[in-house]
Amino acid sequence: MRLIERLKTEFNLSGKKAKELINKRLVFVNNQRVWIASYEVTDKDTITVSKINYPVLEPEILYKDSHIIAVNKPPGLLSTGEKKSVESFLRKNFYNINAVHRIDKETSGVLLFSISKEGYEGFLNLFKEKKITKFYLGIVKGNFPESIKIIDEPLDGKYAITKIKILTSNEIASLLLFEIPTGRTHQIRRHLKMKNFFLLGEKEYTRKPERKSIFKEVPRQMLHSWKVRFSHPVTHKTIEITAPIFFDFKETLKALNLSLENKID
Predict the structure, then answer these.
(1) Structural contact between residues 166 and 140, judged by C-beta atoms closer than 8 angstroms
(2) pLDDT (tens place) for every residue of the chain, 265 residues total
């Protein structure tokens, strides 16, 4: 049974009201928020409706030593700032926390911080020398062509390169793995636009209204900072950190009939 039908029956709602609750992200299946009306549920699933905004998830610490911290940033949370940011959350326990890079508010995944002077200075050198390799997972609209493996067009007059691997695709959408040795502002989104492709949930670089209902239901920009690899800024040991994807990303893949299973190591 589709979620919207179960919602109408169980809560005695009109189709319009049930759809409104789903669109407002107020419906939960087994305590996990679901925003897709066609999501399949069974009699064993527990459906709840929230009357208040669901609390923002706290960032999970993925790696920590005496010099650096890596966290899995939830979507909807700023990287830095005084309030409601990953930085402000970490500052409660690490007074000398310093952000060494940022990712967009709607983007989830690995985010790096220093907690020592040596760590901060070492990270600055690593980023300056482009010795931090970053991998992102992104869902784009349409069937992405195999012929596009590298986009190396300059951005803001500076060298930029995005390497692309198709993990799975169909006529509706594609799941891509991006490797970005360079880190220009909005690099992935801007490079995709040059090839007339756009991330699901993208609002800044595409102005066309969504026509497919499944695209309209996507809650955010579908981009996840999946993995980073670098030489430790102080010990010089090779570090590789991977961030699990969040529920909304998984459910979007499911709704689009895209599978991540056995696609990445």
Answers:
(1) no
(2) 899 998 888 776 778 888 888 887 888 888 788 889 899 999 888 888 875 444 457 899 999 999 999 999 999 899 998 778 999 999 989 989 999 999 999 999 999 999 999 999 999 999 999 999 999 999 999 999 999 999 999 999 999 999 999 999 999 999 999 999 988 989 999 999 999 999 998 888 776 666 666 676 787 899 999 999 999 999 999 999 999 999 889 988 988 989 887 667 6
CA 175 from chain center: how many Å?
12
Q: Which two tokens stand for residue 68?
A: 């650096």
SS3 16: helix
Question: CA–CA separation, 175 vs 154, rounded Å?
Answer: 24
| Nearest Cα to Cα of residue 219 among 18, 58, 23, 31 | 23
Alpha carbons 115 and 170: distance in angstroms, whole number: 44
> What letter would DSSP give residue 59?
P
Q: Which two tokens stand for residue 70?
A: 């890596």
Encoded amino acid at 201, one letter: G
* Contact (CB, 8 A) for 165 and 151: no
Counting beta carbons within 10 angstroms of the beta carbon of residue 138, is it exposed (0 to 12), middle (13 to 18) or buried (19 or more)? buried
- Domains in the chain and their CATH numbers? 3-49 (3.10.290.10), 60-255 (3.30.2350.10)
CA distance 86 to 244: 17
